[in-house]
Please model this.
Amino acid sequence: MIKQSLYQKQLQKLSPQQIQLMKLIQLPILEFEEAVKNELEVNPALEEGSEKVEETQYGSDEQEREIHEEETEFIQAEDLNIDAYLSDDETPGYKMYSNNQSTDDEEKVIPFAVPYSFHEQLVDQIGMLPLNDHQEQLAKYLVGCISGNGYLRRELEEVVDDLAFNMNVMTTEEELEEVLIYIHQLDPVGVGARNLQECLLIQLKRKSKNFTRDLAISIIENYFDAFSKKHFKKIQSKLNCTDDELRDSMELISKLNPKPGNSHGSSGLKGQQQIIPDFEIRIVDGEIELLMHGRNVPDLRVNKSYVNMIQDYKGNKQNQTKKNKEAALFAKQKLDSAKWFIDAIKQRHQTLNVTINAVIDRQRAYFLTGDEAKLKPMILKDIADVIGMDISTVSRVANSKYIQTPYGTKLIKEFFSESMKNAEGEDVSTRELKNKLKEIVEAENKKKPLTDEKLAKAMKEAGYPIARRTIAKYREQLNIPVARMRKKI
Model:
């Protein structure tokens, strides 16, 4: 049965300009510099320069209104639903580079060598293997199937089918197995393995023969499940080895690389990915001094020739051709866009400045000392209320901006945390709780690591009464394994 009904729904909509402003606020410094550069390239009415152009009243009289009315025939920008936009406004996928410069530093250019990609390095090594042309073709295809962390994640049966259908190359699983043995000889050691067990074995077998290495091979080859679950007593009883012998072999295994591809940066670019902070804090005579980085962002102004074009059109409108009229409309569109972009940059600067200053005021004790125990509980709403802006705006600043401090370069969102009560009823940040939990775990007896229940008891004794399930949650967030996995011989 079809039923018709009427209901009201309240939606907040954003104009394209508002959305662009939000994106500018969200961009970290390097991407912001790139956005300014791109805008200069696409908008001829925008140019570099600090000279102030007098406000031109090309939008204030009857003629301007006519231009504006005609312009709407050319441009119709529909408002956008904020829900559609906010679904994709978290931290952008931006590259991080290093440029710890302030406004009074010397200009320094650090050239980057462009290395081969991980796969290119493997392909180069194939040429040095004793393979015939057919085997070399198979080896190169297998290398192309290796993931960024160094593993061959495809079944050889699937590779056989791919080669037949896509390249008209006939082979068998047995032949691929033989070629794969050669690939296992490539660097980094362990590349081309199909699982962790095979990866560790490849690395161990490349080491010099001795008792410790042979015992380690036996552990991984025959008792990998017990090894992964840290059932050391079971391994010891099966292999009939002493505590010292087992300990030496386990230490050797612990030094192996479980993700050999990562040592080469996977794509060959990770080695270049460093951090450019958007802000810098200096402590001068006991006071906090804030610097905003952006030395590569030029001053902008509108192009006078475009202003003159509109003025000429207005001054002699009766004698203008249709072509001149279209040129005037184009000029006005570009001028409006240029003026808006200049204003948006000012708004971005003001938003970032007021937000980071509010964070500094809230966390002044930390920024003066570097003592993380002095970090106060702080959520996005706290800062949003202080600066009179929306929580989403604060989130855009916090999630994508870095600040250089005397104690290291930090992502701003690291200074935000929920609060909990300690034994004295005082508010403490969850960051302080996590740091204390980490200290307790680091100090535990690794032969008898503490369970979550015992960790909760230890935290309570330290003045932080929190539940076992909270301990488990914090432990996972800190990437601390369960007690059984932290056990050492």
User: Anything to note?
Assistant: The longest helix spans residues 322-362.
